[in-house]
Amino acid sequence: MNIRVASTADLPELRQLAIDAFINAYAVFNKETDMQQYLKENFSEDVLRTELTNPEIVILVAEQENEILGYVKLVPGGSEDLKFIRPIEIARLYSAVHTIGNGIGKKLVAAVRDFARKNNYDGIWLGVWQKNFRAVNFYQREGFRITGVTVFKLGDDVQDDFVMAMKV
Asked: Considering only CA atoms, which of 29, 8, 21 is closest in space to residue 108?
């Protein structure tokens, strides 16, 4: 498996992977209208193209045999509550639905740690829905600890997310 920085050429495949992963993880728990609004606002071609061309955002893809199996979106910065001098956020980490449980997320988190070290970040953080037990457990196994709670808006539904963080 190869992990590399994404380019605009990856946009169609990344977009489909994101939509599929998000629906797979959250559709059963949320209203269709909220899901559709979130997908439209966050996974349109224009939004993803802007993210892919923003020099502040880094998107790493995990690929094998020219198929993108997962990706992670990294955004520098964070809240003062994190107590890091130079944090970076995992704003999104998705694996292709057919690869969940095959170690893609673990490899992407390792790549994030490596990226953070090489670029002098001292902490990695993320928000994860409290009801996404599988993801919360995954991040805990990877060394993240719950440090607080934040609000996440999915369509019209306001939800509580855990803030999870780790030192680099």
From this structure: 21
Characterize the bridge pairing of strands 58-64 and 67-76.
antiparallel
Give the CATH number, domain containing residue 152. Answer: 3.40.630.30
Distance (Å, whole) CA 130 – CA 133: 7
Runs of H (alpha helix) within the chain: 11-26, 32-42, 45-53, 104-118, 133-141
Say what the pTM is: 0.94
Rounded Cα–Cα distance for residues 105 and 154 (Å): 23
What is the side-by-side order of every strand in the sheet holding 145-154?
Answer: 2-5, 58-64, 67-76, 87-95, 123-129, 157-167, 145-154
Q: Around Cβ 59, how many Cβ atoms within 10 Å? A: 21
Phi then psi for residue 164, to 5 deg, are: -125, 145
- Total domains in the fold of the chain: 1
| 10-31 confidence digits (pLDDT tens) | 999 999 999 999 999 999 989 9
HEC secondary structure over 93-121: EEECHHHCCCCHHHHHHHHHHHHHHHCCC
pLDDT digits (tens, 9 = 90+) for 113-142: 999 999 999 999 999 999 999 999 999 999
Domain enclosing residue 100, as ranges: 2-167
